[in-house]
Automatic annotation (TrEMBL):
Pfam families, A to Z: FtsK_SpoIIIE (PF01580)
Coiled coil: none
Residues annotated as transmembrane: 48-69, 75-93
InterPro entries: FtsK/SpoIIIE/SftA (IPR050206), FtsK_dom (IPR002543), P-loop_NTPase (IPR027417)
Entry GO MF terms: ATP binding; DNA binding
All copies of domain FtsK, residue ranges: 231-410
PROSITE patterns attached to this UniProt entry: FTSK
Binding site for ATP: G247, V248, T249, G250, A251, G252, K253, G254
Assigned keywords, A-Z: ATP-binding, Membrane, Nucleotide-binding, Transmembrane, Transmembrane helix
Protein name as catalogued: S-DNA-T family DNA segregation ATPase FtsK/SpoIIIE
Protein origin, superkingdom: Bacteria
Amino acid sequence: MLGRKSAGAAQVQPTAPVPARTIRFTTPVVETPGIFILTGWLWRFLRALMLLPAQFPVAVSALGASIAAYHFGGWISLAVLWSVVDVVLLVWWRRWPRSFREVVALRALATWRRLWVYRRHWQPVLVVSGLAESYLERQYLPQIRGVSCSAWADRVRVRIVAGTSPADFEKRVTELAHGFGAPSCRIEVRGPRDVVLEFPRYDTLADPIDALPIPEVPDLAALPVGICEDGEPWLLRLHGTHVLTVGVTGAGKGSVLWSAIRAMSSAITAGIAEVWAIDPKRMELSYGLALFAHYAADAETAVALLEAAVAAMQERAERYAGRQRVHVPTVRDPFTVVVLDEVAFLTAYHPDRDIRRRAENAIATLTSQGRSVGFCVLAALQDPRKEVLNLRNLFPDKIALRLDEASQVDMVLGEGARDRGANAHLIDPELPGVGFVKLEGSPVPVRVRAAFVSDADIDHMTAEAAPTGVEG
Ligand SMILES: Nc1ncnc2c1ncn2[C@@H]1O[C@H](COP(=O)(O)OP(=O)(O)OP(=O)(O)O)[C@@H](O)[C@H]1O
């Protein structure tokens, strides 16, 4: 009985037509004749061969010249040719190392990286990370348009698939970085369907940076405070803006504050800039007391200091009204930087509500009105959430050092910063002073490291700078 077809429940053949659709139309499968496949392969091979001189002009010329030398003069002329080339390259390298590096070494490296790293792994990495698109059973991959190398990073220019957006890449920076064996990946949009993926080859900021030399005539709108990932100086604008530095405890906020103070210390000595310092922890700024025009540590004096700054700012604004629209630092009207370490101590953590309210009012007034009359607030903060500092948007410039959570990156640097590669939550705790900033004119966050100003450097600065006399 069990052997009978009718045993048990009615069996339905998986391919049986649904009663309502007795006729099903399907696309017939036609086998492609082998000759078409072979012709396709041959065409692709010939096309690649024809494009080779345009893609690799130097390699193709070298190969052509070598074949010609061998053909006309045998091994000897080939050896002579290569010896001459080697000598020329050697002289070039010794005499003009910079141009040799840019024209020969980095280009050769780019060719190698393009073939060995990106072309070889392109399809698997993009397919697995979900960046290959399918349409009518065909797969479309973004195309590599070119690879260039700088001293520290590879830049892969990519033509993205029509119908996709750079945001798809921005969401997969981690997959791309791991896929191509890079410590990180950043995205730069150059135009329609034109993006650049930047893969650092090694961490240029792994070693601490000693305190930078003090500029004799500091540009208060571009103070050298550290180094960018590409080796360029990190220039911090203070004049005409306000800066908020955010990072967990031990992230190196102190080195940003001190590097900025150090960079403007000759202006402090000249009397055209002054620092008003608030130091609730009493550990960070107290060491350089002699450099500050005013200093406060406890809440009551800190709020009084902030209110005095507001009064000074308003007095200056009144004098300037109708006469002057731009502040030029002078001994009479120095550029005034209010340095506020752990701003949340006054705005969120202090038990006295009145202190919190007065501090918030004063900071809001300074940050909303102080820019044009030469007042700047340079603040440090551990926790960027709104409950802790709801004034954070009054700071036009922000620095994200190591953060606790991924969601905090966009809170500090603005929406989309994390997608563009500002992984401040992944910064190694062994790298204090490393962070991300947005530089003027570019939405792409840049990785930077602040220089470390040691106690000895601060001693030296206080000895050099004529003390202006600290007041409470
Ligand atoms: N730029 C830097 N380069 C190298 N080491 C640094 C740098 N900045 C800070 N450090 C080291 O990290 C330690 C912690 O730095 P710092 O006190 O500035 O952190 P912080 O963010 O101000 O922390 P907290 O909020 O707890 O005060 C310092 O004692 C110093 O040894």
